[in-house]
Design brief:
A six-stranded antiparallel sheet has the order 1-2-10-7-12-5, with no helix packed on it. The chain is built from one helix and twelve strands; from the N terminus they run E-E-E-E-E-E-E-E-E-E-E-E-H. The longest helix is centred in the C-terminal third of the chain and has 26 residues. Helices cover about 15% and strands about 45% of the residues. With about 160 residues, it is α+β, with helices and mostly antiparallel strands.
Length: about 160
């Protein structure tokens, strides 16, 4: 699914092995485990020579990407294993309004030396739309509840 030129979101492929689910790892130059604390409202930052490939392994958060003077709010959750790819030059940040920390893996692709401004926060040019963010989070919660119900029913 294309969200803006260069940003992509794809469901993570897996195979079942007994009771375990095996997911294909992302190729990367560097792999980081990142924690987004509960209550986080990040300012934006932009990487000049790296592509982020993010996968939530615990919890959920909303990724905010800025494109053409518009915010794009992308919900990511452990209940829907997806990898979002963010190319260089895209301002983005994280919002975690839940009561639990979010843990994710970032499989970084390097395209040269890090730029000194790569991790320096930049003030959002205009306020985030928290009404929209809360609506997205409510939808995420409903999807989570439906998966739990489906899991219980399939075991019955």
């Amino acid at each position: 699914m294309s969200l803006k030129p260069g940003i992509s979101l794809r469901k993570l492929e897996s195979i079942q092995g007994g009771m375990a689910q095996f997911y294909t790892p992302q190729s990367s130059d560097e792999t980081m485990v990142v924690q987004v604390p509960s209550g986080t409202i990040d300012e934006l930052f932009v990487h000049h020579f790296q592509t982020d490939q993010l996968l939530v392994v615990r919890g959920s958060f909303v990724l905010v990407a800025l494109h053409n003077k518009q915010y794009h709010y992308i919900p990511l959750s452990e209940h829907n294993p997806q990898v979002i790819t963010i190319p260089p030059g895209v301002p983005h940040g994280a919002i975690n309004l839940s009561s639990e920390n979010c843990l994710l893996v970032n499989a970084v692709l390097r395209h040269g030396e890090s730029h000194p401004l790569d991790y320096r926060p930049m003030k959002p040019p205009f306020p985030y739309d928290f009404t929209k963010i809360h609506t997205i989070l409510e939808t995420l919660e409903k999807q989570k509840d439906n998966k739990v119900i489906d899991s219980v029913l399939s075991k019955a």
